[in-house]
Amino acid sequence: MISALLVMAGIAIVLGAVLGFAAIKFRVEGNPLVDKIDAVLPQTQCGQCGFPGCKPYATAIAAEEADINCCPPGGEEGIRKLAELLNKEFKPFGDNAKPKPKAVAYIDENTCIGCTLCIQACPVDAIVGAAKQMHTIIAADCTGCELCLAPCPVDCIAMNPIEETLSVWKWKYPVYALSPTP
Amino acid sequence: MTQLYHFHGGVHPPTHKALSVRSPIATPPLPSKLVIPFHQHVGSMAKPLVQAGDYVFKGQLIGMPEDGLSSAIHASTSGTIAEIGMQVVAHASGLPDLCATLIPDGKEAWVVREQRNPITLPIDEIRHILRLAGIVGLGGAVFPSDAKLRGGKHHVRTIVLNGAECEPYITCDDMLMRQRARDIVRGGDIIRRVLGADEVLIGIEDNKPQAIAMMQEACVDRSSMRVIAVPTLYPGGGAKQLIRVLTGIEVAAGVRSTDKGVQCFNVATAYSIYRAVAFSEPLLSRIVTVTGNVHKPQNFEVLIGTPVDELVAWAGGKPDTTHHIMGGPMMGVPLPNDQVSVVKACNCIIAASDALFPPAPPAMPCIRCTRCAEVCPQELQPQDLYWFAKSKNFGKAQEFHLFDCIECGACSYVCPSHIPLVQYYRFAKSEIWARDNDKKAADQARERHEFREYRIEREKQEKADKLAAKEKAALAAKPAASDDAQQKIQAALAVAKQQAVTPKNVSDLTPQQQAEIADIEARRANNQARAQSDAGT
Questions:
Q1: Which range has highest mean pLDDT (A86-100, A168-182, B69-83)?
Q2: pLDDT surpasses 90 at B274
Q3: Domains by residue range for chain B, with CATH
Q4: How far is B226 from chain A, CA to nearest CA, in Å?
């Protein structure tokens, strides 16, 4: 009787030690779910979700503190991907969060006074310039977050929607009649 | 007799080639204007070198190739540049692109040309010449030829010259081989020399006996060059298919034919390579088949930039033409309008009418008959790809090798439900490319944002460190300062002691005052003694 108990207790201790060791040795740094959610988000860092960037929003979603339909730049497809990832129901956008066409900021260089406020606001360092020097947008790096619009004291920044050019043109989804139209 | 191999599938659409081979290649008069796009090739757009109002000579470089994969653009004839601006180009999208509009002066005044000997020219110089001559693959892919001739890690043993021309209606390569076989063969010599290949195989479909005869005659004195008639089967002119038929080599997914020691060039490219190297003639014109709903279907040597409506008018376009197709009926794309210009990729213009190309019957649902899979030359499963593309399940489509699809249209051709399958594949491909680009942009934005956060944090830390260092320095300086003050106080005290001032009202006293002081002192002592004795009792 006693020996059986001892054997079982011994096994429990050994297994416990192995598990404890594994928990320390193979510890996962950070929350892998946050990274997975972050990979789905469009990385505009625009803060339209109410969080100061995509990573904080991903962290909030992972902690179930935020809904999955708060990211307008991600579009409905973004919501769909998040729903699939998190095994949740698809949720349409609320009334105050509607996706807009993709745009790139443009600084009117005649009006710019070189105050550097937009440079400080840009989350991806896509504006170059210096104090009392004209600023300009690096269009290739601009995510269209609109965070530079508010701080500009002379309202010289405009959002230009990205036009369809040959380099970004896509074949359209085929639309045709399934049966003869009368 | 060489042993030939087979590729999977293939179809036999009616060829309609006899229409346009009845008369030789014609040279049309100069058009009223030439619209020359700056981006006619794979790679980056050529940089414009001219401005509106400039006079240019025939063959003058007007678009400089950018670094990397790019090609040059030339003025197709002499005249004045009227405009550099955005114009609709010959592309399925119907979108505008940067073009130069050239008004010909009719003089055809050439730039200075020189004759060179392609046998003695250094190989590097040949590549440089081809790059600046704007030579690109004329089979339709418009890949810059100088990049193809750069070779790779693998030694190219076999050059395949592609004269198969499998697509219905098109006869431009056929006529070129009939009339200019010698120059094509000389172009093949140059390619062979640059790549150091052992043999050149010229594959021609057996429905072009005259072209085969002319080519055989042209290369009769070359032991390393052979003309091989291949069976007529669409799409036997696809690079991978022709390589398979001629050499038996299967070029797998994601592998280039050069890795297998084979490189494929179109016969028209070989011809242009020879003209560019030997006579410094840049790619100013190409042979274009004008056929379909026209009175005189024919091949023309067309200047790059010629408007399609003028070209079709020379062939006698019929009034009931509804639209024009660039390329063949299987793989071609409908042109957005008649005013677009002929580009380097344009091998054929088909005037389409409802009688010639009746509108496709309505598409029915897929019944999974797998006839598409039977004819697919790439051995794909088109019915599955269709399903995945339709449901936008792009990951799965890629798993089923969507990107191996050469968009030949054999599957759509045999589909009993008349489903526009290739349109689905094109849609899925461009959607996947767009997503890849979006993903790359997002990754870059993430990286930039994270670096910014890190930089702000670092600056904060640096500021804090600086402040801390300053405080520390101040603290270190303080004890010394307080010591100094203490010393001053001590010194002052010492001076005060030394001076040892006695109160002024105790010196020079009169005896009476002294007596009064003694009296007061005695009384004080007395009082103190009394108080002590009181406390004692």
A1: B69-83
A2: yes
A3: 18-30+124-352 (3.40.50.11540), 366-476 (no CATH)
A4: 40
Nearest to B348 by CA among B334, B359, B336: B334
In Å, how far are A70, A123, A125, B43, B185 from A47, measured between CA atoms? 10, 10, 16, 37, 64
For residue A182, pLDDT over 60 is answered with no
Which candidate in A36, A43, A77, A127 is best for mutational testing of the B interface (most B CBs within 10 A)? A43
Q: Dihedrals φ, ψ of B168, to 5°?
A: -55, 155
| Adjacent-strand bridge partners of B11 | B234
Distances (CA, A) of B224 to B71, B185, B198, B221, B471: 30, 11, 7, 9, 85
Q: Which residues in chain A have their CB less than 8 angstroms from residue B39's CB?
A: 166
What domains can you pick out in chain A, each with its CATH number? 32-86 (1.10.15.40), 101-162 (3.30.70.20)
Measure Cα distances from B365 to A34, A38, A43, A127, B384 in Å: 42, 39, 40, 52, 13
pLDDT tens digits, A42-90? 898 888 888 888 989 999 998 888 888 888 888 888 888 888 888 888 8
Q: What are the backbone dihedrals phi and psi of residue B158, each rounded to the nearest 5 degrees, phi first?
A: -120, 130
φ/ψ region of B87 (left if φ > 0, alpha if ψ in -120 to 50, else beta) reads beta
Q: Is B465 on the interface with A (CB under 8 A)?
A: no
User: So what's the ipTM on this one?
Assistant: 0.82
Strand locations in B157-282, DSSP E? Answer: 158-163, 199-205, 225-230, 262-266
Tokens linked to B174: 């056929």
> Model confidence over B74-105: pLDDT tens digits?
999 999 999 999 999 999 888 999 999 999 99
Cis previous bond, B334, omega within 30? no
DSSP state of B235: T
Per residue in B102-123, pLDDT (tens digit) is 999 998 999 999 999 988 899 9
| Backbone dihedral angles phi then psi of residue B285, each to the nearest 5 degrees | -145, 165
Shortest alpha-carbon distance between residue A54 and chain B (Å): 9
| Structural contact between residues B36 and B312, judged by C-beta atoms closer than 8 angstroms | no
Residue whose C-alpha is closest to residue B394's, from A173, A115, A3, A129 = A173
- CA A57, CA A68: separation in Å to the nearest integer? 9
**C-beta of residue B50 within 8 angstroms of C-beta of residue B20:** no
Alpha helices, DSSP H, located in B249-344: 267-279, 308-314
Q: In whole angstroms, give the CA distance from residue B81 to residue B100.
A: 7
Residue B36: enclosing H or E segment and its boundaries?
strand B34-37
Q: Does B333 touch chain A (CB under 8 A)?
A: no
Task: Give residue for tokens 């440089």.
Answer: B128
Contact list, B443 vs chain A (CB under 8 Å): 43
Residues of B in contact with A41 (CB under 8 A): 442
Q: How far apart (Å, rounded) are the C-alpha atoms in residues B444 and B448?
A: 6
CA angle B374, B375, B378 (to 5 degrees): 100
